[in-house]
Every structure is written in structure tokens, then in C-alpha cells.
Amino acid sequence: MEKIKLGRRFEGKVAIVTASTQGIGFGIAERLGLEGASVIVSSRKQQNVDEAIEKLKSKGIDVFGVVCHVSNAQQRKNLIDQTVQRYGKIDVVVSNAAANPSIDNILQTKESVLDKLWEINVKASILLLQDAAPHLQKGSSVVIISSIAGYYPQQSMAMYGVTKTALLGLTKALATEMAPDTRVNCVAPGFVPTHFADFIIKNAAAKAAIEERTLVNRLGTTEDMAAATAFLASDEASYITGETVVVAGGMPSRL
Ligand code: NAP
Questions:
Q1: Distance 145 CA to ligand 1 centre (A)
Q2: What PROSITE patterns does the record tag this protein with (predicted)?
Q3: Which ligand 1 atom lies nearest to the CA of residue 68?
Q4: Which of 41, 61, 96, 102 could serve as a FRET partner for 108 with CA atoms 20 to 30 Å apart?
């Protein structure tokens, strides 16, 4: 693919991306940063935060980072407090963290696993936005990362898929609640060969089967997801709110 020249749509903006020290979250932080945002990266491990900061700094990005396990209330509060202390405001929040701890059928999934899926994939997004809301600027934007599995919860990731379906509803509900000053949209990625989806990396047959289900005969990239997220977060999407963009190479989702 030809290298696309990036704009500076986020000059002067402050963007928080959760779970952003690798994979899709890192790609989003990088894209927003390259387009001029000050980005705040976070994840569970200090070392990963430090490494992500170094990588982004080396690309000339203004970046700050803190440890934040999204289901830890104190760490969520600290993420928002540190951001506001440093930059005085928040323009963009990308809620990207998720867990997929089990491949059990829903009826065999333990209660503790059901709780963890709800906590990390849905509740933590809500609680983070509760903390962030007082600092969100007029014209600000929230992007929630769902999944193609939210439309089609295939058996091996069914309950994970259901939590991602919940995010489609959450997007609609929050868009209403946070209007008109803050837009809330959602990106539903297809399959991207990250650590999270390492079964694709490890299994050539699974990779080929997924590629075949797309219309463009390839897996997604973190850059594909970052491009869609950056569009929705930018003023170019100022008339779009409550929507989900499926970025899945044409894999079946909905009409
Ligand atoms: P990834 O490459 O495995 O990256 C996960 C990132 O999240 C890491 O930086 C990790 O760092 C951090 N993290 C993990 N658990 C966390 C937690 N509880 N709190 C805070 N940070 C946490 O994953 P990914 O594929 O980019 O997935 C990102 C999002 O995309 C998820 O919402 C996932 O559901 C969605 N998605 C992915 C795909 C795909 O095919 N990859 C498809 C559809 C949707 P630490 O280890 O330091 O915490």
C-alpha cells in the first residue's frame, strides 16, 4: 500500500487511549500523535508503558504515560488526574481495553469469567468515562473499540462477542447522553494479527479461513483501525455520533 501523507487534525488536542502500549491501542496512539495530539498511553505494566513512550517519542510525538489496569478504580482516576494536571483538559478518549479469558460455550462459562468479561470489556469503559466527563471539552470525542464479534459472536468467543455487542448499545446511549458537546462513536475491528489474536499468527489454516471471509483477501492492520478511529475522533466526523464503523475488510456484519 502506498504511504499516505498524514494531516495534523489533532494539533493542540489531548487524547487518552486505554490499553495502548501495543497492538491496536498503540497504533491509535501513534496515529493521533503523528497528527499532532498530545497522547496519554497506558496499560497494566510499567515496563510496557515506558517502552511505548520511548517508541512514540522517537517519532516526535508528545506523549505521556501511566499504568492503568482499566478495572482498577484508583488507576483509572490517576490516569484522568495526571492527564488533567499536565494538560488541563481532555479532547479525545479511546476506550480500547478488553479481555477474552475463555473459549468456553456461554452456558459453560464460570460466573467469575462472566464477571471479568463484563468488568473489563464494558463496565470499565463506563467508569473511565464517568471520571473523564467533567474534563471533556466542547467538540470532544469518544471512540469505543468493539469487534466484528459484536455482530457475529462465533462459538469460540461467544461471550466476549456479547460484551462487544453491548458496546454498540453503549455507544448509542452515551451519544445521546453526552450530546451535543461530546460525540461518541465506535469502531468494530475485524481480525488483526496482534498478541490478542495470536491464534491467527500461530495457525496458518485459521489465518487463511479468515482472509477468505473478507472481500479484500487480507487480515486487518493496526493502521487500518487507527485510520478509522482517527477519522471518527476528528472534526471531519463532526456530524457523526452514535455510530459504529465496521473495519473488517467486508466481513459480514449488518446491512
Ligand atoms: P493486544 O495487541 O493484545 O494489546 C493489548 C494491549 O492492552 C496491551 O498494550 C496490553 O498491555 C493492554 N491491556 C491488556 N489488558 C489490559 C487491561 N485490563 N487494562 C489496561 N490495559 C490492558 O490487543 P489488540 O488486538 O490490540 O486489542 C485491542 C482491542 O481491539 C480490544 O478491545 C479487542 O477486543 C479489540 N479487537 C481486536 C481484534 C483483533 O483481531 N486483534 C479484533 C476485534 C477487536 P499490558 O499487558 O501492559 O496491560
A1: 10
A2: ADH_SHORT
A3: 20
A4: 96
Q: Is 2 within a domain?
A: no
The pTM of the full predicted model, rounded to 2 decimals, is: 0.98
d(CA 65, CA 236): 27
Q: Mean of the pLDDT values across residues 71-85? A: 98
pLDDT tens-place string over residues 1-24: 567 889 999 999 999 999 999 999
209 lies in which domain range? Answer: 14-247
Active site residue 239: no
CA of 186: how far to CAs of 12, 38, 150, 200, 224, in Å? 23, 21, 11, 24, 14
User: For residue 1, is it within any domain?
Assistant: no
Please name the residue whose Cα sits nearest to atom 12 of ligand 1. Answer: 19
Residue 94 falls inside a structural domain: yes
Q: Which residues have C-beta atoms less than 6 Å from ligand 1?
A: 18-19, 21-25, 43-45, 48, 68-71, 96-98, 120, 145, 147, 189, 191-192, 194-197
**204 CB burial (10 A radius; 0-12, 13-18, 19+):** exposed
Residue of the nearest CA to atom 23 in ligand 1? 196
Q: How many domains does the chain have?
A: 1
